[in-house]
TrEMBL record, chain A:
Keyword hit for Signal: no
Protein's name in the database: Succinate dehydrogenase / fumarate reductase iron-sulfur subunit
Native organism taxonomy: Bacteria, Pseudomonadati, Bacteroidota, Flavobacteriia, Flavobacteriales
Alphabetical list of NCBIfam families matching this protein: dhsB, PRK07570.1
Pfam family name, one: Fer2_3
Similarity-based family: Belongs to the succinate dehydrogenase/fumarate reductase iron-sulfur protein family.
Biological process according to GO: respiratory electron transport chain; tricarboxylic acid cycle
TrEMBL record, chain B:
Pfam families linked to this entry: FAD_binding_2, Succ_DH_flav_C
Tagged with keyword Flavoprotein: yes
Protein name listed in UniProt: succinate dehydrogenase
This protein's UniProt keywords: Cell membrane, Electron transport, FAD, Flavoprotein, Membrane, Oxidoreductase, Transport
GO molecular function: electron transfer activity; flavin adenine dinucleotide binding; succinate dehydrogenase (quinone) activity
Cofactor(s) demanded: FAD
Record's catalysed reaction(s): a quinone + succinate = fumarate + a quinol
Enzyme class at the top of the EC tree: oxidoreductase
Native species: Arenibacter palladensis
Length: 248, 671
């Protein structure tokens, strides 16, 4: 198939960006979206132009490095996938595809489609851990039985890949789904309960400091999340936060 | 006497590690605060090492090329992590895990290292559970296990099909705690481009800030390389796009010996290649072989009809199918080790039985498992005379709970429903057992320079068993290196801060800068990928699942040729002082173009078949094992450690003889 691409080009963080049109031809429907971008970049390189910078790494939907806002949706039109697993069979010959970076105040553009998501790291550093040292003397892994349903729910929350699609999809640029998932994972496990109060307070405080917006329950994040992280995690975080606030 | 000293402690195998730990020198907490350690790479090995060293009190500087340490490629590991917990009571023990690993590695790994690995494996599970890693559990609330290829017990712990992700996020959380405390200084989007040696000791690195292009100097009392494997030398592999050998190769060029580069794991269950545009291959976890049966049609006319779309695999009756693993290896069946399964798939496809258009695919079929689970569920739920459809529905639900994310991934990529029609799979490069040579302390042949995880050569011999990579990465980082490095650093307490304004740093930075300037000014006629793909094709065709003298000699010459052309004709757009992904790739591919040649040289030298290294000249001629790989313990029971001497072809071989005192060397049999 032949396609027209409208891509956001921006030289550096301080530069002004703009949309630029490109044409690609003979794209196979079995290609992934990023392989289509490879074709474009090879084309640009051979013409002596600068290729489009975009983040990507594992190309199997798990590292969370790829981003891209495609035709107005984070990770494009398919559901339950990241951009690297989006396939060209989702598009038609002759289509025009608009490709922008994830946009949020807390995700500044570095170059073209690459954004800085280190705000996510800092939220995790504020409390996204259990304070246990590596000693070789921790208690046996089976010492505390954990209800299978709780363990499974914790696992579902923990599958978040930290890509930022939730933020990019939210009209308020809220990071509540991301933070809610991490808070939930630990809140559901006995090992995580010990520090639950401080954790939720510290992570929420950092989230606010980074300039993420608030949640107004539109649910766009859940729809666009490539890992199907549920809105229940936001509700759980709110409960945890409320309980922590009362405790003081 | 070889120049290699493995420094394996004396005494009985079972006591070596304990005795060693009791006798090493320690550093007191006040001194640890003044000692710097650099860790390059933040996967399971690097992440866990950085966190643990920081917990101990050292000042850690950690580097990764990704935008966050959480994205290292350990995250993509699916199936699980082994540990000799024996929670299933099925006869597992430290010794059995040790034995399986040595045997699985085809008796080409160092006994003492492997025993230590098996010993600390149980601590890893305890540690991860304490960190909040949500492993799968049964209804009683205890940890669940599954079984993996090459073993007869269930010792694999897992978190759905995302075990690597959960373990890495565990290590990442431990790192975050230390970053918040200021004990780890984290450098995201940075790439190490050289190591700096002062008076023979590793004292720092030169790194490039991948956002600004700035070249930085970082000093430390010890440097730890945890940069993963070199599978991308094949261009197509299950590695991440950015996975590279640059850190490992740079230290090799600065004196660290590189061991057994030809030991590469070609994983049997990956999604087959679909076209020339393909940028990478996707693994389907080995755990699928617990329930999936591998087959190709028995008759050639059926193969051809399937390829032409005239026949569906589901239309073939049981007796028209060749379950070739079950046929050839009745004892282990579909759960033979990876190298054996991969070669068997290649054998069938080479014979013309491949089931897709490229002729390089076999079926992985869940029909029997779905039926079996369906019947079981019908019984549990008390459904009398369940219809065939109901049984299938119940069975599919069980399979979905076990492998749902993998099935979804397959469907997204291939556009076929694997519940209804068998999956197509084919082997792909997945893991490299070879790597930087290290002693028992995980130190390379350069003093103060350590190498851990997949980047080193140490524990998997010539073939790695499933679910053992995660085990080794975390064992090295959490439980081995933090001890062994302390012994070295105890001699560094009087050294003081290492300055970076010295001739050694000047020289290293100059070399790095010159190379970068060369690339951006070369203005050749071909992209980096053009050369990478050519290298990959030579590697796959001549250094792939089966190798011979003629092919390997050709490979060496061809790789050299591609390398020379690369330096003449490579085109790197953009400049050095900005984010420039093509420039990053150019440096990595330049290193692969050297490593590839050493790889072929190593494979040529090793005139035996062992593990992932299969030499066509070395097979069993007759008897029950006819056609199977033939090892040669008399001449090749050694680690091949190569010393850099300029051109890869000039590398000098050093042998570390492998001694097996607690295990009898046997030809592997999975029949």
């Amino acid at each position: 198939m032949n396609l027209t691409l409208k891509i956001w080009r921006q030289k550096g963080p301080q530069d002004k960006g703009k949309m630029v049109d490109y044409k690609v031809t003979d794209i196979s429907e079995h290609m992934s979206f990023l392989e289509m971008m490879d074709v474009l970049n090879e084309q640009l390189t051979n013409k002596g132009e600068e290729p489009v910078a975009f983040d990507h790494d594992c190309r199997e939907g798990i590292c969370g490095m790829c981003s891209m806002y495609i035709n107005g949706e984070a990770h494009g039109p398919d559901r339950g996938v990241t951009t690297c697993q989006l396939h060209m069979r989702m598009f038609k010959d002759g289509d025009t595809i608009t490709i922008e970076p994830f946009r949020a105040k807390a995700f500044p553009v570095i170059k073209d489609l690459v954004v800085d998501r280190s705000s996510f790291d800092r939220i995790q550093q504020a409390g996204g851990f259990i304070s246990v040292n590596t000693s070789g003397n921790t208690q046996d892994a089976n010492a505390i039985p954990i209800d299978k349903h709780a363990a499974d729910e914790a696992m579902d929350a923990a599958t978040c890949i930290g890509c930022g699609a939730c933020v990019a999809s939210c009209k308020n640029s809220s990071a509540m789904l991301f933070v809610g998932a991490k808070v939930s994972q630990y809140a559901l496990l006995p090992q995580g309960r010990v520090e639950a109060t401080d954790r939720v307070k510290n992570m929420v405080a950092q989230m606010d400091l980074e300039g993420f917006g608030n949640c107004t329950n539109t649910g766009a994040c859940e729809v666009e999340c490539p890992k199907g992280i549920s809105l229940e995690n936001i509700a759980r975080m709110n409960r945890e936060f409320f309980a922590a606030s009362i405790k003081g | 006497m070889s120049v290699l000293d493995s420094k394996v402690p004396k005494g009985p195998l079972k006591d070596k590690w304990t005795t060693y730990k009791d006798k090493i020198n320690l550093v007191n907490p006040a001194n640890k605060r003044n000692i710097d350690v650099i860790v390059v790479g933040t996967g399971l090995a690097g992440g866990s090492a950085a966190a643990t060293l920081a917990e101990l009190g050292y000042r850690v500087k950690a580097f990764c090329y990704q935008d966050s340490p959480r994205r290292a490629h350990s995250i993509a590991a699916q199936g699980g992590i082994n540990a000799a917990k024996n929670y299933q009571g099925d006869g597992d023990s430290t010794y059995r895990l040790f034995y399986d690993t040595i045997k699985g590695g085809d008796y080409r790994s160092r006994e003492a290292n492997v025993y230590r690995l098996a010993e600390v494996s149980t601590n890893i599970i305890d540690q991860c559970v304490a960190q909040g890693v949500p492993f799968a559990r049964d209804y009683g609330g205890l940890l669940d296990n599954r079984s993996f290829g090459g073993v007869l017990v269930s010792r694999t712990f897992y978190a759905k099909g995302q075990t690597g992700q959960q373990l890495l996020l565990g290590a990442y959380s431990a790192m975050n705690r230390q970053i918040a405390r200021g004990k780890i200084e984290m450098f995201n989007r940075h790439e190490m481009l050289d190591v700096v040696k002062v008076n023979g000791k590793a004292r720092g690195i030169i790194a490039r800030n991948l956002v600004t292009g700035e070249i930085e100097r970082h000093s430390a009392h010890a440097v730890v390389i945890a940069s993963g494997g070199y599978g991308n030398v094949y261009f197509l592999s299950t590695n991440a796009m950015g996975s590279n050998a640059t850190a490992a190769w740079k230290i090799h060029k600065k004196g660290a010996f590189f061991a057994n580069p030809c030991y590469t794991q070609i994983h049997p269950t990956c999604i087959p290649r679909s076209g020339d545009y393909q940028s990478k291959l996707t693994l389907m976890s080995e755990s699928l072989r617990n329930d999936g049966r591998i087959w190709v049609p028995k008759r050639m006319e059926d193969v051809l009809a399937i390829r032409e779309g005239k026949l569906k695999p589901t239309q073939l009756s049981e007796d028209q199918r060749d379950y070739y693993l079950e046929r050839r290896y009745p004892a282990f069946g579909n759960l033979v080790p990876r190298d054996v399964a991969s070669r068997a798939a290649k054998e069938r496809c080479d014979a013309g039985f491949g089931v897709n258009a490229t002729g390089e695919a076999v079926y992985l079929d869940f029909k029997s498992a779905i039926e079996r689970y369906g019947l079981e569920q019908a019984k549990i739920q008390g459904i009398q005379d369940a219809s065939k459809e109901k049984i299938t529905e119940l069975g599919e639900a069980v399979v979905e709970a076990k492998y749902g994310n993998l099935f979804q991934m397959y469907e997204k990529i291939v556009d076929e429903n694997p519940y209804k029609t068998p999956m197509m799979i084919y082997p792909a490069t997945h893991y490299t057992m070879g790597g930087v040579w290290v002693d028992y302390n995980l130190m390379t042949t350069v003093e103060g320079l350590y190498c851990i995880g997949e980047a080193n050569f140490s524990d998997h011999g010539a073939n790695r068993l499933g679910a053992s990579a995660l085990m080794q990465g975390l064992a090295d980082g959490y439980f081995v290196l933090p001890y062994t490095i302390g012994d070295y650093l105890s001699h560094e307490i009087r050294t003081g801060k290492i300055p970076t304004d010295t001739p050694e740093f000047d020289e290293a930075e100059k070399e790095v800068t010159e190379r970068i300037n060369f690339f951006v000014n070369n203005k050749g006629s071909h992209s980096v990928d053009y050369f990478h793909k050519r290298l990959g094709k030579v590697m796959w065709d001549k250094c792939g699942m089966s190798r011979n003298t003629k092919g390997l000699k050709e490979a060496m010459a061809e790789i050299k040729e591609i390398r020379e052309e690369f330096y003449k004709e490579v085109n790197v757009p953009g400049s050095a002082n900005e984010m420039n992904p093509e420039l990053e790739k150019a440096g990595r591919v330049a290193d692969f173009l050297e490593l590839g040649e050493l790889f072929a040289k190593d494979a040529l030298m090793r005139e035996e078949s062992c593990g992932g290294h299969f030499r066509e000249e070395s097979v069993e001629i007759d008897g029950e094992q006819k056609g199977e790989a033939k090892r040669n313990d008399k001449d090749y029971a050694f680690v091949a450690a190569w010393e850099y001497k300029g051109e890869p072809a000039d590398a000098v071989l050093h042998k570390e003889q492998l001694e097996f005192k607690d295990i009898e060397l046997k030809q592997r049999s999975y029949k």
